[in-house]
Amino acid sequence: MHWLYLLLAIGFEVLGTTAMKLSEGFTKTMPSIAMAIFYILSLVMLTLTLKKIDVSIAYAIWSGLGTAFIAVIGIMIFGESLTPMKIASIAFIILGVIGLQLSMSH
């Protein structure tokens, strides 16, 4: 169940960051409200996650995958540039998350 909470925390964080971009510096009301709601939900889910998963693992996965997903959304939805360095950096983030997950089993 705690892994589900972590996945929900990541999803809400990604939605919150996307809404942040869409709020255009708090000039659009609905995306601004959505951003606040999504971030609150993300932190609630992350807090529930921390009942059973080490903070070092949970936070690294939450922030790492959130960052990777936002980078992909930036490229696909907001037309940000895709460079070899971005591709490599996203790959390193994902590899780091996998490494942390593997470290839990030892």
Describe this structure in words.
The chain is built from 4 helices and no strands. It is mostly helical. It has one domain. Helix 1 (2-22) runs antiparallel to helix 2 (29-49), helix 1 (2-22) runs parallel beside helix 3 (55-76) and helix 3 (55-76) packs antiparallel against helix 4 (84-104). It is flat, with a radius of gyration of 15 Å. The relative contact order is 0.14.
Task: Please name the defining characteristics of this protein.
mainly alpha, flat
Please compute the radius of gyration using only Cα atoms: 15 Å
SSE sequence, one letter per element: HHHH
The helix-and-strand class reads: mainly alpha
Q: State the domain count.
A: 1
Give the gist of this structure.
The protein has helices spanning 2-22, 29-49, 55-76, 84-104. It is an all-alpha fold and 106 residues long.
Secondary-structure map with pairings?
Blueprint (H helix, E strand, L loop, with lengths): L1 H21 L6 H21 L5 H22 L7 H21 L2
